UniProtKB/TrEMBL annotation:
Pfam families: Cpn60_TCP1. The keyword Zinc does not apply. The lineage of its organism: Archaea, Methanobacteriati, Methanobacteriota, Stenosarchaea group, Halobacteria. GO terms for molecular function: ATP binding; ATP hydrolysis activity; ATP-dependent protein folding chaperone; unfolded protein binding. It comes from Natrinema thermotolerans. InterPro entries: Chaperone_TCP-1, Chaperonin_TCP-1_CS, Cpn60/GroEL/TCP-1, GroEL-like_apical_dom_sf, GROEL-like_equatorial_sf, TCP-1-like_intermed_sf, TCP-1_chaperonin, thermosome_alpha. PROSITE patterns: TCP1_1 (PS00750), TCP1_2 (PS00751), TCP1_3 (PS00995). Residues 1-20 are annotated as: Disordered. This is Thermosome subunit.
Length: 514
């Protein structure tokens, strides 16, 4: 009797566990060398020849086009880490892979998968307690936020800029959107533009949109701008039905032309009379209307996409209007200044200040597409972690110090756990060691020697990490060197990695349809 299709493939027992664990470990290994300030980059080339160069874990895993379902779970760990806290994606993926490796060894020793899962979850709770114990007691001020941003970006592609100089911009941007209700992270955007050194990167108090004036005679800048946003085509109306009109005389032709001129003039007059001196419209603007508005010193941008129109409306307080007859004073938004600038083949509109002051844009410059793309990823991660640190008010030491503390506490607590579950808890501690070991390997130090020295320093000092300062690598207190991470980054990495590893370890039957 056939229960499944004859084309189905089924893998059971140890073979299924081994296959899934191997896939998860392979994915984690692919990003392990990118970890830390001395991590290496990956070059990813897709089928179309497009190239991505990065050491961002989430980007690498998403670009790899992974098909194995167990491996996809590791990708999801990285995605979740990126979405929730913005950094630690490589740490989470590497930790999940190493938890799987330790689980594989336990399974070969006939430790049941359920026991491993129980042990891992108990160890994860201990790990979270260890993270709480490592939280810095000092208030999270701007200096600590700069350290968080710099720690996040160190080792990532930042072009000609140092992580320290970018950190200033990142903290300023997040402070700008810090409200009584929390950090409005969505009000900080990153806009990239190729064509200059990364040193030209700046913070714009407002938004930047890819638009140019509808007419060359329009002003390039408007101060104290009143802004209208229209979903109106400022052009001659055409019917929906195909029709032909017979003109028998010059008088009829002149009448038709006059009617058209009158319609276009009516549009220009209605806009000018509204009090708006800057207009954004999602539809087209006839050349004669644009010329008439240029003569009135009205700046017009036509053909906006819906997302850009929403962004301008949110930033300026203007309300979108679908009929010129409905345009009233209360529909107008405001900004301190709207200016246009040309960057090679691109024209950009900068909407600054006024109602737009609630929104800020990090305007990223770079000489090549690869540089600005990596800068955008680095700054995006830094914005996320600074927002996370500011909202939670908790930071922990980086440079592997928190992982050393986790492993030490988990091993200490494991001694009081009875049965085979103790083996799983101890294995969890061994898995966490992968982070400082990898950091050491990526700096050129022997991983085993570094791990021994870190444990000794942690036991004597209570806090020890691998500090990279230029060409020197020392073991010291990361707080003394400003190497800090948001506590939530570590918590999320532990929780998501544990969930993925235990889910994969419990699978003992894989049924695949052809």
């Amino acid at each position: 009797m056939f229960i499944m299709s004859e084309d189905s493939q089924r893998t059971q027992g140890r073979d299924a566990q081994s296959s899934n664990i191997m896939a998860g470990k392979a994915v984690a290994e692919s990003v392990r060398t990118t970890l830390g300030p001395r991590g290496m980059d990956k070059m990813l080339v897709d089928s179309g020849g497009d190239v991505v160069i990065t050491n961002d874990g989430a980007t690498i895993l998403n670009e790899m086009d992974i098909e194995h379902p167990a491996a996809q779970m590791i990708v999801e760990v990285s995605d979740t880490q990126e979405e929730e806290v913005g950094d630690g994606t490589t740490t989470a993926a590497v930790l999940a892979g190493n938890l799987l490796g330790e689980a594989e060894d336990l399974i070969e020793q006939d430790v049941h998968a359920t026991t491993i899962v129980e042990g891992y979850h108990e160890a994860a709770e201990i790990a979270l307690e260890a993270i709480d114990e490592q939280v810095n007691e000092a208030d999270v001020d701007d200096e600590i936020l700069r350290q968080v941003a710099e720690s996040c970006m160190t080792g990532k592609g930042t072009g000609g800029l140092t992580a320290a100089s970018l950190a200033e911009t990142v903290v300023e941007a997040i402070r700008h959107v810090d409200t009584d209700e929390g950090v409005a992270r969505d009000n900080v955007t990153v806009h990239t533009q190729i064509g200059a050194s990364s040193n030209a990167t700046e913070l714009v108090p407002g938004i930047v949109v890819d638009e140019e004036p509808a007419h060359d005679g329009m002003p390039s800048a408007v101060e104290d701008a009143s802004i209208a946003i229209l979903d109106v085509e400022l052009d001659v109306r055409t019917g929906d039905v195909d029709a032909e009109y017979a003109i028998d005389s010059i008088d009829q032709l002149n009448a038709a032309i006059d009617a058209e001129e009158g319609e276009l003039e009516g549009y220009a007059e209605a806009v000018a009379d509204s009090g708006a001196d800057v207009v954004f419209t999602t539809e087209d603007v006839h050349d004669r209307v644009a010329n008439a508005l240029a003569n009135e010193d009205v700046l017009v941008f036509e053909g906006l996409g819906d997302s850009d129109a929403r962004q301008v409306a949110s930033a300026t307080g203007a309300r979108r209007v679908g009929d010129l007859d409905d345009l009233e004073d209360e529909d107008l938004g405001s900004a301190d200044r709207i200016r246009t600038e040309n960057f090679g083949d691109d024209d950009l509109a900068f909407v600054e200040g006024g109602a737009a002051a609630e929104t800020v844009t990090v305007f990223v410059r770079g000489g090549t597409e690869h540089v600005v793309d990596e800068l955008e990823r680095a700054i995006g991660d830094a914005l996320d972690v600074v927002a996370t640190a500011l909202e939670s008010g908790e930071v922990v030491p980086g440079a592997g110090a928190t992982e050393i503390a986790i492993a030490d506490k988990v091993r200490e607590e494991a001694a009081g756990i009875e049965g085979r579950k103790q083996l799983a808890v101890t294995a969890f501690a061994d898995a966490v060691d992968i982070v400082p070991r990898t950091l050491a390997a990526n700096t050129g130090r022997d991983p085993i020697d570094a791990l021994v020295d870190l444990r000794a320093a942690h036991d004597s000092e209570g806090r020890a990490g691998l500090i990279t300062d230029g060409d020197e690598v020392t073991i010291d207190d990361p707080f003394e060197y400003g190497v800090v991470d948001p506590a939530d980054v570590k918590r999320e990495a532990v929780e998501s990695a544990t969930e993925a590893a235990t889910m994969i370890a419990r699978i003992d039957d894989v049924i695949a349809a052809e």
